[in-house]
Write the structure tokens for this entry.
Amino acid sequence: METKLYDLSKDYAAGIRAGAQELCRGNLVIFPTETVYGIGADATNAEAVAKIYAAKGRPSNNPLIAHIWDMSQVEEIACDISPLAWRLMRKFWPGPFTIVLKSRGVLPKIVSGGLDTIAIRMPASQAARDLLKESGKIVVAPSANISGLPSTTTAQQCLDDFNGKVPLILDGGPSSVGLESTVCSMTGEIPMLLRPGGVTLEMLEEEAGIVEVSYAVLHALQPGEKAESPGMLYKHYSPKAKVCIIEGNRKAIAKTINSMYDIGVKMGKNPCVFCMQDRIDQYLPRHVHSMGQSPEEVAKNLFAALREADKAKIDLIYFEGIEHTGIGLAIANRIIRAAGFDVVNADKEEEIEKHIACMHG
Ligand code: TXA
Ligand code: MG
């Protein structure tokens, strides 16, 4: 299959029209959103939705998010909606916020992987909204990456993963948030944060008071433990490189990373340190990658940086731990998965020794 690429900065109306046509024909379209790129299909067409799972290599019990452009669409697909759920939707839509509600069961089963709930998001990206509107469809769209790889935030990354596998990619430039939407379940009385994102825990708490945070946000689930969000079970965001997060006090972090890095080099590895711009000096002359000047910039750069590390054949990434406040919680949620939960506290000698012993295999 030939993959067509429309640059929306040059060919906006034609691109949106072509995208809408493909969706209506039951084909896949990759499109930009403010969070990450999505790979979309008509939510009412089970065969079209099946193509998403096939293209991504995604486990079929990992449910999809239904994207809408108008509030009135919520009740077409969801029911038993509490006043607080409505308040959250009004407050955070359009935007990087996905709400899980009780499903009306009108969409094909394949959308929700057999669950009786449905995840819904109204994106803020103008191109995404215009595409949805033009097609007249509710569009299910997971992140546009091969399952297990980092999500995509540019059209080129989408092309790297899906060239020849989808008919159309709409290029809307780099995603502004850079991490997938916040997923919040409102199927119980108290909101439950399933996946942190651009709408932060603090923002949710300000609106809702108490918000529960799913254990899986920062912890590995053990076999047999129930996942509130099936996506949290899977290996995620993984570059080929081994990633390790180093936490603790700032001075100890630099000392630990530098000694681990030097051991890695002696072992013939090609390591790289990922840190904030103002910390680069701590690591020079080693290979170091600036993630940006603020947590927001780190969020925006993260997936591209992981993908570029693979291209540069980096096989060991030392990531400076980041505070779990604001967007920091979402960054931590992603890198902790990229690291396969390998987190070392630089203030604890025994953790450092254990990690170094592991490096020697
Ligand atoms: O920002 C985003 O949300 C992007 C863009 C394209 O909108 N989409 C995205 O989709 O990240 P995906 O499929 O990569 O992640 C959806 C997450 C998964 O972890 C999935 O398990 C969870 O949402 N999810 C979907 N439906 C659910 C449901 N009914 N109950 C609980 N979790 C659900
Ligand atoms: Mg995804």
Summary: The radius of gyration is 21 Å. The chain has two domains: 4-181, 242-360. Residues 242-360 form a domain with the Rossmann fold fold (CATH 3.40.50.11030). The longest strand covers residues 97-103.
